Structure formats: structure tokens, C-alpha cells
Amino acid sequence: MNGYIEHANITLVNPQKTIGFLLAALPNWRIRGQGKMAEWFGKEVEWFHVGDDQSYIALQSGGESRIGDWNCHWTGVKHIGIVVDDLNNTVERLKTAGYELDHWGGDHPHRRSAYYMEEHNMQFEFVEYFSTHHSERNDYSI
What residue stretches are annotated with the VOC domain (predicted)? Predict the structure, then answer.
């Protein structure tokens, strides 16, 4: 079996803000599970699994600040990339929901991407591929 990423877990100040962002971008995603932990290192936290049947992003409360700017030299996750079927539709949904595009990804004949910052300064990249061939999709020499 090949490995794949099932989920990433992110601690935030207000997970509801990030849930709103993700569901605006990805209408086929849903909150597939949620709950509370009464004692998580001195705090009560809520957790949410937002995604589809195969993968999700685990979001939990309990954070105390925003993430540093993605263009600084701090250690940590710089962005999370999510593949979408139609980037133009994703960008339009986010615009309609009030989210501003941060920047477009580089030019490539077989993929296109757009980057967004959500409430906690977490960066998400949405990627559309124009080829089904992995050698073209994953070509970094162009």
C-alpha cells in the first residue's frame, strides 16, 4: 500500500474561523467529527475534523496567537496544499465569501495554484492540475 497523508492537526485560537474558510473553498468537505477534551494541558479544547471520507484537517481550539508570516524564517508549517478540480471556481467561491487572494503560484503548463491566508495567518495553497501524468504534474524543471 502506498502511504498518503490522512490528516494534519492544527491548534488555533478560533477553529470556527478556519472551518468557515475551508468550507467556503471546498463545498464537498464537511465537519466529519467533533468533540471536546476537558483537560488538554490545562485547557478545555474543542476539536473538529474537516474534510471528506478519505482525508481531513484536524482543527482544535486552545491556541494563543497567530502564526508568523509565511515569508519569515520561523520553523513550522508554511502552508497546506489542497488539490481542487477547478481553481477558478475555488477562487470565485472564496471571493464571494469575502476572502482575499494572497498571491498566485508560479507559471507551469501542467498546474496552477493560488495562495490564501486565513484568520490565524495560516496559509493554504489550492492547486489545480491540468495533466493526469505524474511526470508532468511533478515536473520541477520548468
Answer: 4-129
